[in-house]
Amino acid sequence: MTGRRKGKKLTALLIAVLMLTSLLIPTAFADEAAVEEEYSTEPHARPDGGKYRIAYIDYDEYLVASRQFYYILAGLEELGWIQEGSLPFGIEDIDRENLSTRDLFSLLTKADLGPYLSFADGAFFYLGYDDPEVVAETLTSRAGKDIDLVITFGTSAGVFVKELGLPIPMFDFSATDPVASGIIDSATEGSGNPMVWAQVEPTPFFRQLKYYNSICPFHRLGVIIYGDETISGVPDILSASEILGFSVCKDNIDEQPRETEEELERYYELVAERIQTMAEQDIDAFYLAIDLINDPTLLKDMLKPFYRKNIPVYLMEDVEAVRNGALMLISASDMINVGRFIADAVAKVLNGAEAGSLPCIYFSAPGIYLNYDVARMINYPLNFEFLSICDSIFVEES
């Protein structure tokens, strides 16, 4: 198949790129820290002796959000803001029981996390399900009274809460491009709002596609976008195509109702139709975009049209999707250390820093996850050098 060339040079190039990325990270942060005013991260109670109370806003159920939320909590635990061993769940529970962020928040409201932090009753919302007017009214009326800070996941939640202009700090994570979406004004010169902070991972999908292309060059990349193109990384995809020299076959699906079982069934029927059509195009790789298939258990069957034509399926995110049938993920986000980075920002703001003045940029070191059974099924070129640098290799029932 076109672009499916074996070559040790390509794998060696990937190894060099990965090593260079990981080596540059400490230097980048050392330079940024040098100009940042130092603030303590030490835990303490509110001035009145009470606990700081946290609200959380998400868009809908998404297991990736649950995992990243857990690692933020783990970062706060490492810093002492959450009492060691008091979290009522672990990462294994999230994966085994498919716990949503709403599930996690509910458990946190009932848990004794120590003397410093609590999660406020009735202060969790899904914008995709809950009435936005009710969400806005609740946050506006409670901010500064029984809610002290807000954590938001993704672009939609970040934009929504930022535009409320709350008198309390907000911390957004996992937005595709917080600057382009207007959550913050700049990733390097202050957010433009003293109460707003957003985690920024610069050009994550550009870097990801560069890695994929270096392993096995592709000439025409297929991608199906659900909803907003910025959230799905289209600017990065198009930029990568120009620089790396491949073309893009793009299909768009407008936002659909996906709340009930019937709505989800209709939605995934539509996605299956679009995948079948995409597989019939002249593509030699497919890039599975964010929010297209949120149930990884559906992947094995839904991706068959690609695999029948030996078309590899690369991921934007979610290791579980590799376990369940996608070929590969070179992760654009190091969840454990991103969680620590966000927790550090929260701790500094609670110690007097302005949210909008803190560094936002985090460069993740990539991790590589491979479905070996899929690779063999589609005759994907593998060699020992590449396999040796994978973080995880999934085989059936393992």
Q: Would you give the CATH topology of the largest domain?
A: Rossmann fold
Q: What class, by secondary structure content? A: alpha/beta
- CATH level-four homologous superfamily name of the largest domain: Response regulator
Strand order of the largest sheet: 2-1-3-4-5
**What's the alpha carbon Rg, rounded to whole Å?**
21 Å
Low-confidence stretches: 1-35
Q: What is the count of structural domains?
A: 2
- Overall 3D geometry? globular
Largest sheet: 5 strands, parallel
- Termini Cα gap: 29 Å
The helicity comes to 40-55%
At CATH's second level, what is the architecture of the largest domain? Answer: 3-Layer(aba) Sandwich
Number of helices: 15
Please state the average pLDDT score. 88
- The CATH class assignment of the largest domain is Alpha Beta
Q: Kindly estimate the percentage of residues that lie in beta strands according to DSSP.
A: 15-25%
H-E order:
HEHHHEHEHEEHEHEHEHHEHEHEHHE
What's the count of strands?
12
Describe this structure in words.
The protein is an alpha/beta fold and 398 residues long. The protein has 2 domains: 8-25 and 203-332 and 367-394, Response regulator (Rossmann fold, 3-Layer(aba) Sandwich), CATH 3.40.50.2300; 45-201 and 333-357, Rossmann fold, CATH 3.40.50. Helix content is 41%, strand content 15%. It is built from 15 helices and 12 strands. A 5-stranded parallel sheet has the order 2-1-3-4-5, sandwiched between helices. A 4-stranded parallel sheet has the order 7-6-8-9, with helices on both faces. The chain has a 3-stranded mixed sheet with strand order 10-11-12. 42% of the residues are buried.
